[in-house]
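User: Sequence in, structure out. Go.
Assistant: Echoing your sequence, followed by the structure tokens.
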Amino acid sequence: MSRHASRRRLTLVSLAGVGALSAAGISLLPSLASAAPCPDVEVVFARGTGEAPGLGITGTPLVKGIKSALPGKTVSSYAVDYAANFSQTSAGPGATDMTDHVKSTAANCPATSFVLGGYSQGGSVTDIALGIPTRLGTGRSIPPQLASRIKAVVVFGNPLRLSGRTIASASDLYGAKAKEFCNTGDPVCGNGRNSAAHLTYHLNGSVEQGARFAADRINQK
């Protein structure tokens, strides 16, 4: 058998082996994924109502700002998987997804610290995940034993303020770790009538302040 034929036969055998593993329900991809290094910091962020899946208009620059402020650390991000629907009924399921992700990552990456946050309805997602009751539903909350791993909480336009509360006033565990932004006139958090005020957190310096706050909290450890 020629050398070329031998190589071709070995390639076919290798491909057949991979095919057999796949047919048996065994994938090589999880092994490769599990080999990925754990980040020093993970930002878990819930976008606002009506935004396309992802980190959204505030979460995207927040993550970028935190990365810039922590040049010596690895920073990853996770966009909470939830509907962010206009009926305001998805905050509870969003909180459950945020909680489940934090629990899973914390178990697999024991040295990783977390920054949690949300914008608009995403603020309610964050509230519920922190164990703060809201009018926008219920969901699973992060176990108290993981509170020390959560170094900062940053929210923008959080509807919790409409009930006269803030994370600082409603949570003994997370109040001191929270930075909360509510623009004057914002109807979602401040009972205002200026809908444009709810859309400018990524333009008026709030995101940059939030990123610096989170980075400072991370560096305090």
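User: And one key feature?
Assistant: The longest helix spans residues 3-23.
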